[in-house]
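Thread: NDP complex, take 2
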Amino acid sequence: MLRYRPSKQLLADRTILVTGASDGIGRVAAIHYAQHGATVLLLGRDRKKLEAVHDEIVQSTKTAPFIVPFDLASLTKDSEANFTESVVGSLDCLDGVLHNASLLGPKVPLAHYPAPEWETVMHVNATAAFLLTKALLPLLEKASDASVIFTSSGVGRKGRAYWGAYAVSKFATEGIMEVLADELSDTHIRVNSLNPGGTRTAMRAAAYPAEDPFTLPAPEQHMDLYLYLMGPDSKGVTSQKFEAASWRGP
Ligand code: NDP
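Output below.
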C-alpha cells in the first residue's frame, strides 16, 4: 500500500547533497531524488562506487549529478574552510541535505570498546554532520524551501548493549537535529531525523551476520518517506523524529 504519492517532478530545480551516496540507503535515495528531478551531489569516500551511481542516474534520468569524493573522517575544524571552497564553492544555493553516511564500528561492550574506533565513529557519524551542516548553512539559507534530514537509528533513541559509539553518535545526531531545528524554527529551513529501521544493506548485514537479509525491507521500500521529507510536501514540518517502519503517510 502506498503511503504517499510524490509527484514526478517533486524535486525539479532542486539541488540536493546526499552523504554516503555510494551504497545502501544513500545510493537508493540519491537515485530516487534524481528520478524526481533533483540535481544530486553524491558524496562518498569511494570514487569508483560514486561513478557507478553517477552513471546509473545519467542513464535513467534527465538530470546531471555531481560526484563529491570525500572521506568525512578527514573533515575537521581545520579542513572545513577548504571543504567549503573546493567542494561546494561553485554552488549558488542548496535545497536539501540528506545526512546518511555512517560507520557501524565494533559491536562490543563499552568496557572493551577501543578508543580510536570510538573517536572515528563519533567523528564520521556526528561531528562531521555538524561541520558539514555548518559549512552548508549559508547555501541552504539562499534556497526558498530547504530541508535537512539527519539519519538516526533505533539505538539512537534507546541505547542497547554492544552498540557502543554507533548508538552514542546517533543520540548526538538527534541532539544536533533538535538544536538546529529550534535555531531555525522561524526560517524556511526544516530539520528532521529519520530512522530507516532494519533495512537490507551491507551495514545491517555486518551488524546481524546470521540474519536472512531477505526478511528485511529493501531501501526502495522507504523512499516515499525520504521523498516526502526532502520535497515541498513537508513544508512546515520540523524537529520531528520519523520512523520509516511505522510511518503511514503525511
Ligand atoms: P551502508 O554501510 O550500506 O552505507 C553507508 C554509506 O556511508 C556508504 O555509502 C559508505 O561509503 C558511506 N560512508 C561511510 N563512512 C564514510 C565516510 N567516512 N565518508 C564518506 N562516506 C562514508 O549503510 P546503510 O545504507 O545501511 O545506512 C545508511 C544510514 O542509515 C546510516 O546512517 C545508518 O546508520 C542508518 N541506519 C541503517 C539501518 C539499516 O538497517 N541498514 C538501520 C538504522 C539506521 P562506502 O561505500 O565507501 O562504504
